[in-house]
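Section 5: illustrative case.
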């Protein structure tokens, strides 16, 4: 209040003479809570308000921060926490900000390893072709979805070979190996990759057939015939296995899976004829032996088999001729030669 009274005194001193009360008296007569008297000093109050506003402005002006103060007071201001990355979500849903809010937060990923350094189980790897650029979310939204046709992959060392190709490679390794054990390992692995790879199956059969009475051979033959029921090599090997086991009915059943009249394989025909003869089926064995002597006339065993069948079927002329052909080959054991001579004497006398 002292500042206001001092201001009023200064104004009254500048007022022209003619006022009835001095400025100090008017100031003292003002009491709090009473309205000012009408008349005399209303202009004074108006001027006082203007001056008061100016004084207040002058009073507060020096308090405004000087240009150098922000740097000095910056240390006193506590640092604000960093703004989170999801600030775009706080923006209003305008057409411009919609794409920003829809875009996912981009995270920095480590660079992909060089495909050439990858340990590859199979052939050594080559660098893979560069992947096509992926469109950004905004580009994907602006373009219609299209299914791009996949380019065929070029064969390379970085791509595993087909099972048939890998089986062929293992088969060649088996052929080049001098160890029978390693040959079996290579061939078995090849057949695991491609069970119908016939060269590998036939070569493994040749190794296993060296032990004709083994159960492993029987199981392998059953598996092979399930895949190749008309394969003559598998059929004859299984029949030979049964002959070694003295199981002639099983051998005949195995051989009769194919038409014997259409087969000219000597090993097949010899097994079939011997199995028929052992089962006393001479009528079935005779035509088979006749076919054998036409295909292989120099073999004494074929003529002997034909002679025995003709002798059992009461065909003496044919039996004598076949016995003599067998003797002419000079390839039979002495015990067999004695038997032939006995039968010739019996048939010719």
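Designed sequence:
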């Amino acid at each position: 209040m002292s500042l206001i009274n001092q201001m009023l005194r200064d104004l009254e001193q500048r007022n022209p003479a003619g006022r009835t009360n001095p400025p100090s008296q008017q100031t003292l007569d003002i009491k709090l809570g009473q309205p000012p008297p009408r008349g005399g000093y209303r202009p004074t109050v108006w001027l006082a308000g203007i001056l008061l506003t100016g004084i207040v402005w002058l009073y507060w002006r020096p308090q405004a921060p000087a240009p150098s103060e922000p740097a000095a007071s910056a240390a006193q201001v506590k640092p604000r926490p960093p703004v989170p990355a999801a600030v775009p979500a706080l923006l209003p849903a305008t057409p411009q900000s919609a794409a920003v809010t829809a875009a996912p937060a981009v995270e920095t990923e480590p660079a992909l390893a060089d495909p050439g350094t990858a340990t590859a189980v199979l052939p050594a790897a080559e660098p893979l072709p560069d992947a096509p650029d992926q469109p950004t979310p905004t580009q994907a939204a602006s373009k219609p979805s299209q299914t791009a046709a996949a380019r065929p992959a070029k064969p390379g060392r970085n791509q595993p070979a087909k099972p048939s190709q890998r089986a062929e490679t293992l088969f060649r390794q088996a052929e080049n190996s001098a160890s029978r054990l390693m040959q079996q390992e290579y061939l078995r692995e090849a057949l695991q990759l491609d069970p119908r790879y016939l060269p590998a199956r036939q070569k493994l059969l040749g190794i296993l057939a060296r032990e004709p009475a083994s159960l492993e051979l029987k199981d392998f033959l059953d598996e092979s015939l399930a895949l190749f029921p008309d394969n003559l090599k598998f059929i004859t090997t299984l029949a030979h296995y049964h002959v070694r086991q003295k199981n002639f009915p099983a051998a005949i059943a195995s051989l009769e899976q194919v038409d014997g009249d259409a087969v000219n394989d000597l090993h097949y025909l010899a097994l079939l004829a011997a199995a028929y003869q052992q089962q006393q089926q001479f009528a079935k064995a005779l035509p088979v032996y006749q076919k054998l002597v036409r295909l292989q006339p120099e073999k004494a065993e074929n003529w002997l088999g034909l002679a025995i069948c003709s002798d059992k079927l009461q065909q003496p002329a044919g039996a004598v001729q076949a016995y003599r052909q067998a003797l002419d080959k000079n390839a039979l054991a002495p015990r067999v030669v004695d038997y032939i001579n006995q039968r010739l004497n019996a048939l010719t006398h």
